[in-house]
Design a protein that fits this description.
With about 170 residues, this protein is α+β, with helices and mostly antiparallel strands. The protein contains 4 helices and 11 strands; from the N terminus they run E-E-E-E-E-H-E-H-E-H-E-E-E-E-H.
Length: about 170
């Protein structure tokens, strides 16, 4: 796949691999690993039928990623089971499970792209130079069409929570 755009990390320009995901297009399929009593797979098909927010972070072992995950978890709790919410990173599923358990992240599932970084490439958020995911948020409708997409230009900055949640709430009714 090609390259598109760039992000910065503390001011240093970095290249994103893959194709940019556009509002109005079908979200790419994916298969992410997670740990729940054993290794399992989470796919886009598993999320069909409900609006979905996908919060992408470089690593749950960093402060801004932890804030992003905690913030979405807290703000999405009110929507209950009307929506799907997933945090995606390249962290190992065991580490993601440990963090989410320790932080009582209950409104969001976690999915790891560690196996092949296909989610990162297919969603255009894989940082070529660092081989980690850029910070991003995607909102999909119940059929998997993208209604909101933000790739945060400065990886060390937080996403626009209000805009993402507003897009999700419109879909959730």
């Amino acid at each position: 796949m090609g390259r598109h755009g760039a992000v910065t990390f503390k001011g240093t320009p970095l290249t994103l691999a893959g194709a940019e995901v556009h509002v109005g297009s079908a979200a790419p399929d994916f298969s992410l690993a997670y740990f729940e009593g054993g290794m399992k797979q989470l796919t886009k098909g598993d999320l069909a039928g409900k609006p979905t927010i996908i919060s992408v972070v470089p690593s749950l072992d960093t402060p801004v990623c932890q804030v992003q995950t905690r913030t979405f978890n807290k703000r999405l709790a009110a929507l209950g089971d009307k929506v799907n919410a997933v945090t995606v990173s390249l962290d190992l599923p065991f580490a993601m499970n440990r963090f989410c358990g320790a932080e009582e992240i209950k409104a969001m599932r976690s999915g790891s792209d560690y196996m092949d970084r296909a989610f990162g490439r297919d969603y255009g958020v894989l940082i070529e130079e660092l081989k980690i995911l850029a910070r991003a948020v995607f909102v999909l409708d119940a059929k998997g069409v993208v209604h909101y997409a933000q790739v945060v230009k400065e990886v060390a900055s937080e996403p626009d929570y209000d805009a993402a949640i507003s897009a999700l709430e419109k879909l959730a009714g």
